[in-house]
Amino acid sequence: LEESTSQFVTVEGEVTQPGNYPMGASMTLQRAVAAARGGSEFAKLDDVVVFRTVDGRRMAALYNLGAIRRGVY
Length: 73
Fold this sequence. Notes:
Helix content: 10-25%
Mean pLDDT: 90
Order of helices and strands: EEHEEH
Largest sheet: 2 strands, antiparallel
Radius of gyration: 13 Å
Distance between the termini: 35 Å
Shape: globular
């Protein structure tokens, strides 16, 4: 056993394979979408919403995956 994780990321919406994926230490938004086999033909990757819980509070953030890929974000 090289790595163990008890945390998962849920990827849903217009991705090829929505589901829960193990969240390793190096998980990024790009890697989460890649784990879900990328966006579908209808995916709007310039408006990706990430929900997370921080200190018991639910938070949301909007990301532009295309800008991230280009290194602009």
